[in-house]
Amino acid sequence: MLRDDIAALLTVALRKAQKRGDLPKFSPPAIAVEHPKDPSFGDYTTNVAMQSARLARMAPVKIADAIVQNLAPAAYVGKVDVVPPGFINITLADDWLSQQVAVIRQDGERWGNIDKGGGRKVQVEYVSANPTGPLHFGGARNAVLGDTLANLLAAAGYKVQREYYVNDAGLQIRKFGESLLARYGQALGQEATLPEDGYHGAYLQEWAGEIVRAEGNHYLSMPREEAISVLTAWGIRRTLRDLERDLAALGVHFDRWFSEKSLYEDGTFGEVMNLLRSRGFLHEKDGAVWLTATALGGAKDEVVIRSNGTPGYFASDIAYHYDKFIRRGFDWVIDVWAVDHQGHVPRMKTALQALGVDPKRLTVVLYDMVKLLRNGQEVKLSKRSGDIVTLAEVVAEVGKDAVRFMLLTRGNEATIEFDLDLAVRESSENPVYYVQYAHARIASIFRKAQEDGWTIASDANLSLLVHPAELHLVRHLLMLPEVVDLAVTRLQPHHLTYYARDLAAAFHQFYRDCQVLDRQNEALSQARLQLVAATKQVLAQVLALMGMSAPERM
Fold first, then answer.
1. What was the pLDDT predicted at 380?
2. According to CATH, what is the number of the domain 2-92?
3. What kind and span of H or E run contains 510?
């Protein structure tokens, strides 16, 4: 990346200054290069001189001057300024900038990709809602966040697996099956009662009706436990079918749907319990089995198997992560959880220590809630069912692209207000429309060029690109690798939406100030066609990273 090249150039200059005696000997800090908040200060800046002042026992400005005087020539460096109290500001060379259009065009869809991961295996596990009914719209944030992170990690050189953990075992699944049986009985005229803390959603009444139409009263003649088991399996299959369909409509697909139940059926759970016992991290108390978390620095010991002999959800999580790290050998695992699960994070880290796995290999990305707004008022219930608002309903109303973009507009742990009216508004106020319209506008330029008989030259004279709006646009095109690096380093994909809006704004400004097709100046037109082609390519790439389409017409 250009940022890293500049940091390396400055590092060499600092060492050269020390070697020549312009600076005293000291171990310099790592040089951090950033974009200045005020673009008038240049394209990049560093405060290394100020960081080195105490070490060198010199004024920061003098240190900065010594570094700049020993800076080797570089094609991309146009101007270097030392600004009190000691900033070094670098402005990119105009002639170098214009030539980068060809570099971006040549890289094609690879532009923006970086080799941060080096092929390491990373698993991203996300959504993983209980398979007990339709996905609430709040779960859409989990889906979009996890899926976009997976896209970014792949672009950063990681080998990525996307996984949905199906919680098809445990108490909640039992209540789900009992609730479906009760609704089935009610559909056949019985006075069946829903279990305490059962599932009351209207969808279960619909599903019970489907079962009655297909099977009649067949399940009423079964022993109760057998009927619950059969209907639970039916309900899980139905839920997963709908989940897969609804998530696909959002552009979310998984490499694997992992069954919690399989951990008990294939012996994984028993294997994990034996491992923890052999390592001295299980003990019995009050009839239950506990993980001795306090021996590893945990705040308190944790129940693994309840006194009634049933494993708790924590036990399943331990076995599941054992399968991830030890059985399947992922180098890094990222779990995407709602912020109300944050208390479970230290427990999982402690459990990994007990398994002999470095807890740093697990990262939990937490996200906050989504408020759905219509006419400025929060929407909590579905118009159709009077129940929760589902993901499928919102995607059907505003489209997957609007859902994905709007759910990436804030940092992970910030609350998002999703404005349904704004999401479908065709104006610059709608960031989704604003960004996609830039891509569609470029497509219209090429349609116009074709209609007017232009032959687009691949050897255009890019040095003609000297207008401030042209160079401003190129600068934004060059930032994509840095944005990918930032988003992956911080696991914060909202940086993509910020970048997309800034890039679209730079293009719209260019379109306003610079005529692309001009028969009076064909050479400049050819250069500008290459620039807009590069912009179209980068816009499509950032939209793809967000899981969105790049429309040719709007």
1. 81
2. 3.30.1360.70
3. helix 494-513
